[in-house]
Design goal:
Blueprint (H helix, E strand, L loop, with lengths): L4 E6 L6 H10 L5 E7 L10 H12 L9 E7 L3 H8 L3 E6 L2 H17 L4 E6 L9 H9 L10 H15 L2
Parallel strand pairs: 1-2, 1-4, 2-3, 4-5
Length: 170
Amino acid sequence: MKRRIGLYPGTFDPLTLGHIDIIGRAVKLVDHLVIGVATNPSKTPVFTLRERLDIIRHETVPLAGDGRASIAVETFETLLIQFAEQIGASVIVRGLRAVSDFEYEFQMVGMNQRLNPEIETVFLMADPRHQAIASRLVKEIAMLGGDITSFTTPYVAELLIKRCNELRNK
């Protein structure tokens, strides 16, 4: 039987409880999940690429194994579909929070389907508790000194608060 490889792409800056929720559910659907960390020149990340990789690896340890998929965290700078082909993914996992996410994702699926019809996209709806969480807003709240503890893990919150303090004091 062919090993089913899934790809969950994003910038993950920072990793939120919403991301962790999707990862926790995706590992039940595939044999191996690759979390693809994108380098997106149009975004200004708070964490470096290396930091994001380390954070994701740290936070996903409890989500792998024990009957669930193994997890790898890798970077990519290519088209999403090219990266999916490179790692042998048959499934791209995407999280949806709201109807506005769907419109963008619907267009992406159409384009990706044209580029490679063998790779399916699976949408997982965000847990209602996490639907409002957006990395961009978590960063904004942290930069303004707000409480982000209900949006991410204690580990990520501590790192993000520290980084935002450093950025404010520059």
